Amino acid sequence: MGKRDDLIAQYADDLKTKCGMDVDMDLLTKVTIGCGPAIYNADASTVASSQESELETVKDNFLIKKLGLADGPELMEAIGKVVETYGKSERNKYRAVVYYMLTKHFGKEAVYG
């Protein structure tokens, strides 16, 4: 297994154990690949959920640009729900896991079709 496969397995474990979700491995793999080289960078691979600017970046770059959603208060509410599900006290909120949950939340799996 390569490094990316190891990371995908780690993300799947987080989704199962920390978020209580059944994992669509095909979608998780596509979301992870979509994150690009950021998954290999310790800082970029996680979402700093306590920083408002980081949450705005997730909203602008992922929800609006990638998933094609219209800006509105429901976007930040969804990010808040995902952070809550992952666990506010969880230090490492992996970007791929957060993006996966947001993709599922908005039913935008087709973006990765």
Helix content: 55-70%
Mean of residue pLDDT values: 96
N-to-C order of helices and strands = HHHHH
Poorly predicted sequence stretches spanning 5 or more consecutive residues: none
Could you give the count of β-strands?
0
Classify the secondary structure makeup into a structural class. mainly alpha
Element layout with pairings:
Layout: H1 3-17, H2 25-34, H3 52-66, H4 73-86, H5 95-105
Tell me what the structure shows.
By secondary structure, the chain is mostly helical. Helix content is 58%, strand content 0%. The chain has five helices and no strands. It has helices at 3-17, 25-34, 52-66, 73-86, 95-105. α1 (3-17) packs across α2 (25-34), α2 packs across α5 (95-105) and α4 crosses α5 (95-105). The chain starts with a helix and ends in an 8-residue tail after the last helix. The mean pLDDT is 96.
Which features characterize this protein?
5 helices; single chain; globular; 113 residues; mainly alpha; 0% strand
Task: Characterize this entry briefly.
The protein is mainly alpha-helical and 113 residues long.
